[in-house]
Description:
Elements: E1 2-30, H1 35-52, E2 60-69, E3 75-86, H2 89-104, E4 114-120, E5 124-129, H3 133-155, E6 158-169, E7 212-225, E8 233-234
Parallel strand pairs: 1-8
Antiparallel strand pairs: 1-3, 1-4, 1-5, 1-7, 2-3, 6-7
Amino acid sequence: MRYIExxxxxxxxxxxxAFEATLALSTATGKKVICFDEALALREAVLATLRKSxxxxxxxxxxxxxxxxxxxxxxxxxxxRITIRNTSMDVLMSAxxxxxxxxxxxxxxxxxxxxxxxxxxxxxxxxxxxxxxSDALREAIRSAQTTATLLADELGVRLGGMLSVVxxxxxxxxxxxxxxxxxxxxxxxxxxxIDAEPIETVSYAGLPVSPAKVARQFRIxxxxxxxxxxxxxxx
Length: 235
């Protein structure tokens, strides 16, 4: 079968619908301490802090984690990741600051039996396609069909229907990188100590964020009618 193949692009803008960050809670203990118990207690305390900072349960999600214990080492490590999302950056910043305040309020001990630390992955915008995205895609397909028709006319053949469409992603929003911090300051945690007072908010002056410009590239193959039958090859 003979065919005409056209490369076309649909360019569109993505609008920001929220901001997202990932919090990693790291707990390290010696072999005589149940690391999971300490890690889970810290997780519950931080979840309560995040809720008090203005985040709802729907905006707090599991982000994965891992546990590590070396048979030949006395150290055990458990990491919990929590992903938080909000439409307002200042709410996200307040949640991050509240988490730091919680860690700062814990008793410090470099030689403590439990060492805990946290890392916040930088907040990233979460984009959604705007209403014109489908229109841009339809226009790209129409443009490809027009180009293929002109080529068919010049070649003296008649253009048939589409045989296949293959999309090539030129640019897209990257997934947030996760990073976990080990070592550094040591924290000794003996009990939950969340203040009953409301969490202090952070004064954060947001800046305008430009929408992401995305190009979707398609390779569209059209059949050529009344052509000789044989192996697939372009006209």
